[in-house]
Amino acid sequence: MDLGTKLFRTTLLTLAGNKAVESFALKYGLKWGANKFVAGKTLEEALEQVKILNNKGIKVTLDHLGEGIRQLEEAASFKDEYLRIIKAIHAAKLDSNVSLKPTQMGLQLNPAACYENIREIVREANRLGNFVRLDMEDSPYTEATIHIVRRLHAEGLTNVGTVIQAYLHRSEQDILKLTAEHISLRLVKGAYKEPKQIAYQEMSQVNDNFRRIIQMRLDSGVYTAIATHDDRVIEWTKNYAAQHNIKKAAFEFQMLYGVRMPLQEELAREGCRVRCYVPYGRMWYPYFIRRLAERPANVLFVIRNMMKK
Fold this sequence. Notes:
With 309 residues, the protein is α/β, with parallel strands linked by helices. The protein contains 12 helices and 8 strands.
């Protein structure tokens, strides 16, 4: 990663925590281009997009946006919304599971209450034959998130998995432990700003580790989601799977709503399993900023939309 890219990424990720900028963005952002990456403010709007994607052979994971609540009471509304999502998916017979952030459920405020909230959601999903993915947030929550998933599996609730970020030094050891317990994982490069003491800073190092942990999971036979828009990683994965007789049903590619949609459709037509991460909700700003930080082209898209208004 060159110096200019590092500065660009650092500046945007810093803005993710700026409340003044967030307030301005929430007022105008969807009009200026955030709706390219966010499927609306309501569940009903998001479900319409799920139907469209399913008709194209693309699976979905629905995410009700929000993170880092300030009052534990807020977690109850997030929990209730996820219970509503799971019921709505079942009623509409959609091919979709759900993703949630532990901090939505109160992880940083009350870990015990957070666990109970998540367990209630996972139980309801289990009852209706669905799956819950615990998104991985920044490093202060890595160990706690993994612990929640392992504890739920120990209770017999195996319809839950989490995410491993390739840029963290610890990820290879986490992969070994979680694979031994047959826990479903989504593998990503990582989208938070982390210090060099715990995370690789050079993209070449991140890419090398990403391929390494993908290989570990493909070889294991435990179902794995590979979240990337990188053509080189996608082709490498397809070739590795073909060369080692790994069936397409053993893994899936995951991509973000609004990013490389033609490629998602193309992979689905090839017979690959493809899942689109579809976020919605009123608390979309931090998510949106991280999407901008990943690709300068996303910022140009927003600027073009601003100039049209």
